[in-house]
Amino acid sequence: MNLPSITQTVADARNTFTRFPVVILDAIIGTACALILIDYQGPSGPTVLFPIVFGAALGLPLLTGLAITSQKWKWSRSISLGVQIAGVVLVGLYAMSVPKDLIDAPNIHLLRLLMLILGMVLFILAAPYIRHESELGYWNYCKTLCLRMLTACLYTVVLWAGLAIALAALNNLFGVDVPGKRYGELWVFIIGIFTTWFFLAGIPKELESLDSVTDYPKGLKIFSQYILIPLVLVYLVILYAYLGKILLAWDWPQGWVSRLILGFIATGFASLLLLHPIRDRIENLWIKITSQWFYVIIIPLTIMLFLAVVQRVSEYGITEGRYLGIATVAWLCVVTPYFILSRKKKILFLALSLCVAVFVVSFGPWGMFAVSENSQVSRLKMLLVQNHILVNGHVQSKHDSLQFETTKQISSIIGYLSEVHGFDAIQPWFGESLKRDTAGRGDAFKDPVLVAKLMGVTYVRVWQIAAGGIMFLRADRDGALAIDGYERLLRGQHFDVESMDRKFSSQGIAIRLGRDLSTMTVTISPDMQAADSLQIDLKPLADKLRAEFGNGSTDRIPPEKMAIVAANQTVIVKVFLSILRMQRHEGRWKVTSFDADIAYRFRKKN
User: Fold this and answer.
1) Bigger pLDDT: 442 or 410?
2) How many other CB atoms are there within 10 angstroms of residue 353's CB atom?
3) Is residue 361 helix, strand or coil?
4) What is the dihedral of CA 499, 504, 508, 510, to 10 degrees?
5) pLDDT single digits (tens) 313-366
6) Are 66 and 83 in contact (CB under 8 A)?
7) Which three-class secondary structure state does DSSP give residue 577?
């Protein structure tokens, strides 16, 4: 194989730019803005660069799809350019919806971008062949794009790794200062410029030539027949065994099984699509039979998927993930009858129908984001009304104590809203702004702990709670430690039942915990000869913290509230608990571990 010369490479790059000028300019603008954001060292704040980067990211697949479609449909260059400019306008309108202070904004903007990019990728796969009849040509087109993308990803990783090692060599061997962010900038530059250009260069100029390509890669058949198909069978056995268990025990399906069902369906579709061109060959009759029965087999699994998602929705309401589960069931209810009853059974229908479904669920009051937010806000409203926290449309901070499960549910919804949507939907319930900027001009909302506090609720992080009663209490990481008057500070010491001793010989101090972690004994020998000891009782502090901060968990406790001071004639010690973990056992709370910063000062001898 002859490697291309530099001249040929430059010519190919020029030809690619001529075919996809708008796409490449979009990539250059987006990459430049991303590099500026990474390199910026000042205080964070609103910037138009975030909307430009998001718009450019969405523009890449959209403009690529429009360019390929115009070439496939033989549009004139002026019409093709006009259509792509219209695509730029759409991208600009989308960018206007992206907040300039994106770092502090809820994740809904990132999630919507990912959904739209998925839809645009499916648009690339489907749009050029909507008016084309060749199944073989369409399959070869999809194969070409997928293989080109895999090759581009491989080249990208190798190129970045090689250049990153070169930068590290300059830093370590020649003393050249290479800031860590340079590696991130290098990755963004390669992804934005090289990967995009390389991928576009591999798209055939005359797509009609793919209609006559009959060669089928042997490696692809081996991968599909001996790796994917066995995986499908494994999934099938597990899922139908679980289905049998449900029918025998009449037990509602668990929510986790939905992931396995989706894995089975995705792997099955991938296997059938990869083997599609050779399904009619005599030696591959089994492929045709398998593809016919596959859609019948997934009918019971689709029903089980629906029941599993409905169970989660009935317990915890709708979120984006559960909405997508229901949407997937709806899509399968369209796709399955098509491939069972239709004579043509075009594989284009898969990409086209999925593309339409993605765009339908991404916008509007029926979309995944609006429905999920409304569902969780309704659940929160119901809980607050039932517990007399929301009265006549206004939140009351003074009310009766809540059961732990109620506190946990309220905290979970507040955390979800904070992470994904923000608090705009519940702002009317409060007399003060829920944004950090009290004037309401910024995009950053208050911490969910503070919002819960306005409701008179102790915020409980779901990941911190486990069966049996576990409590995590954390000091506010933004709070300063009052260590004036102390000489030394032992930072970040961790103690648990397996790590109960600390020795600092050079400083003349040793620390030992009691068996139940409720006492700390500090042994002091500042002159390396005489030894003295000081015992600190941690249990009163732990009980006080548990009583003051309720039956939940929090990470906003002022550091001074988690500190304890003890002294004797030799030393003064101040223990700042940064994390305190407690577990309820046989009706009593016991300390299981804690992290602490320990400040101390030796007393001067008279």
Assistant:
1) 410
2) 16
3) helix
4) 0
5) 988 899 999 999 999 999 999 999 999 988 888 899 999 999 999 999 998 999
6) yes
7) strand
At 494, is the secondary structure helix, strand, or coil?
Answer: strand
Question: What pLDDT does residue 4 have?
Answer: 64
Supply 303's token pair: 């029903």
The predicted model scores a pTM of: 0.76
> How are the residues of the chain apportioned to helix, strand and coil, as percentages rounded to the nearest 5?
60, 15, 25
Contact at 8 Å (CB) between 167 and 178?
yes
DSSP SS3 for 347: coil
* Tens of pLDDT, residues 365-394: 999 999 999 999 999 999 999 999 999 999
Q: In this predicted structure, which of 141-145, 207-211, 274-278 has the lowest mean pLDDT?
A: 274-278
Give the pLDDT mean for 225-250. 82
Cβ distance 465 to 553 under 8 Å? yes
pLDDT at residue 467 in the model: 43
Structure tokens, 275: 């083997």
Find out whether 533 and 524 touch, Cβ atoms under 8 Å: yes
What mean pLDDT value characterizes the chain?
Answer: 86
> Do residues 129 and 141 touch, judged by C-beta distance below 8 A?
yes
Q: What is the pLDDT of residue 601?
A: 87
C-beta of residue 164 within 8 angstroms of C-beta of residue 178: no
Q: How far apart are CA 160 and CA 181, in angstroms?
A: 14
Query: Pairing relation of β-strands 571-585 and 509-513?
Result: unpaired
Report CA-CA distances (Å) from 110 to 103, 358, 420: 11, 15, 9
Q: Where are the domains of the chain?
A: 6-210, 218-363, 370-460, 470-602
Helix axes 21-39, 77-95, angle to 10 degrees: 30
User: What residues contact residue 19 under an 8 Å CB cut-off, 6+ apart?
Assistant: 67, 71, 200, 205
Tell me phi and psi for residue 348, to 5 degrees: -60, -30
- pLDDT at residue 258 in the model: 81
- Report pLDDT digits (tens) over 63-101: 999 999 999 999 999 999 999 999 999 999 999 999 998
What pairs with residue 557 in β-bridges? Answer: 475
* Rg, the chain, Cα only: 31
CB of 285 closer than 8 Å to CB of 338: no
> Tokens standing for 48?
């138009």
Q: What is the DSSP string of 581-598?
A: EEEEETTEEEEEEEEEEE
DSSP 530-572: S-EEEEEE-HHHHHHHHHHTTTS-EEEE-GGGGEEEEE-SSEE
**H helix or E strand, kind and range, residue 305:** helix 285-316
Question: 257-274 and 285-316 are packed helices; what angle lies between their axes, rounded to 10 degrees?
Answer: 150
Residue 535, Cβ neighbours under 10 Å: how many? 12
Burial class (CB in 10 A: 0-12, 13-18, 19+), 7: exposed
Q: What is the pLDDT of residue 465?
A: 47
At 527, the pLDDT band (50, 70, 90 cuts) reads: low
- DSSP for 71-114 reads HHTT--HHHHHHHHHHHHHHHHHHHTTS-S-GGGS-THHHHHHH
- Would you give the DSSP letter of residue 207? G
Name which residue leads in pLDDT, 98 or 518. 98
CA distance 362 to 356: 10
